[in-house]
Amino acid sequence: MGTTSGRLLALGAAGSVLLTACVGPTAAPGGPDATDAFAGFPSCADDATIAADPSLYRDEPQYGNAGELTDDVRAWAEEQGGFEELWLDRERNGWVTVGFHGDDVDAAALQERVAKEFPGEGVVVVEVPSSLSDLQTLMDRLMPVLADAGATPTGGLSLDVPRGRLGLFGVPATPEAEAALQQFAGEPLCVDVVDPAAFVPEGPQPTEGEGWRLLGHEPGAGEPYRTGVATTDEQLAALWVDAGLDGDAPQVDWEGQVVLWFGAVWGSGCPVRLDDVVVSGATLHGEIVVPGSGPDSACNGDANPHAFVVAVDRAVLPAGPFVVQLDADDPPPGAPQERTVVDVDLSVPGATATDEQIHLDPDAGPQPGPLLEDGDTRAPEPGARYVWRPRPECHGVVVGPFAGTLWRLADGEAEWTARDGQEVELHPVDEDVLVVSSPGMEHLFVPARDDVCDA
């Protein structure tokens, strides 16, 4: 989960379960940069999944993940000619939608057959206008043209059979991009664009800026989510080692400068660059960017380190005490060690700080959330805590109920490994998905049926 600031979330929240074949995002980012139309194509934010005749839907049954049912329906559909994709319709009680494509497809006849095969269940058949193969072929034709126009989507692509189109996210809104896309008029495309001015310019790593100069930097060196401060030769030697830089540290004019280490973080494919050192109130931070990235840019979620060590003029330092961190935002969950606190005023020429006066902030990052218990009237908020215990009267692993909703482990999730009495964290995604995090593992939970637990 990369961002243009070069930071990654130490704790990722899982998205809603979507049973489609996708490259890149599974849903349109939308937002203020998306437009109603570009080059004659609609915005992806306006597209809805293909639905059956409204008369086929009922108020019941209602599904959370419908895992066992989807497996059975998929097995049935794969025996029929023209089967393309299966998905859950969250707008219609989570009903299972089965998409078919081809000249010989008779959706009405297939609907009659699926109703007989799964009596009483919420399963509908629709005819989709494009097959996955059709969308893949379109993508293969389109991408070289966009690349030649300098308009490769930064937010990814979506081979979206349930919406009947190929989605493009983060296309720079340039005349060249518009001309390239117009060559595909009439094709099943949706396009979300971003302002070219919002892209970070390409370019080499600056060696200096106003009030600072670069002493050394190295991708892959040191640890990510770290910062440090040095005010003496001895502290600089130790900081240089912590940053993972080779050789000896350069000489520094301690009368007029101090040294900072930014242990930046980046995802594979998105190397970072330090563009500036910024002071905002009592916070000093880096301006760390991903060259060439835009608002919808996506990076791999691995957290790789990149060490930047800079000498900063004392004249630009905030009066102490002050803090040093990677950017203007607080450290993300799981990385409180990113913030360094300096207890003294280093803006005074020649001032030094002892090792004890340069330390981590025990209050950095999100603080422990509220502790919820079974039957709690409060709905989970991000970071809420819960002590898990096995429930023999329930079928499978459950948590809650919270605010009247009991949650069960979603179908297809990894084996539950939490111990009796272990504290876990709750991270709601939406009303249908709850992420439960235990050390080293995250699991998806979905609303449980009334009969999951015996009375």
Characteristics:
25 strands, 455 residues, alpha+beta, 13% helix, 5-stranded antiparallel sheet
Describe this structure in words.
- The chain has 455 residues and is an alpha+beta fold.
- Strand 3 (83-89) and strand 4 (95-100) form a beta hairpin.
- The protein contains five helices and 25 strands.
- Among the domains are: 54-127, no CATH class; 208-360, no CATH class; 371-447, no CATH class.
- The strands form six sheets. Strands 19-20-23-24-25-22-21 form a seven-stranded mixed sheet, with no helix packed on it. A five-stranded antiparallel sheet has the order 9-10-15-12-11, covered by helices on one side. A five-stranded mixed sheet has the order 13-14-16-17-18, with no helix packed on it.
- Residues 1-35 have low confidence and may be disordered.
- The protein is 13% helix and 31% strand.
Strand-helix topology:
Blueprint: E1 37-38, E2 41-42, H1 67-77, E3 83-89, E4 95-100, H2 107-117, E5 123-127, H3 132-148, E6 156-160, E7 165-172, H4 175-182, E8 189-194, E9 208-209, E10 212-219, E11 226-230, H5 233-242, E12 257-266, E13 273-280, E14 283-289, E15 304-313, E16 322-325, E17 340-342, E18 358-360, E19 371-372, E20 384-388, E21 398-402, E22 405-409, E23 422-430, E24 433-438, E25 441-447
Parallel strand pairs: 4-5, 7-8, 14-16, 19-20
Antiparallel strand pairs: 1-2, 3-4, 6-7, 9-10, 10-15, 11-12, 12-15, 13-14, 16-17, 17-18, 20-23, 21-22, 22-25, 23-24, 24-25
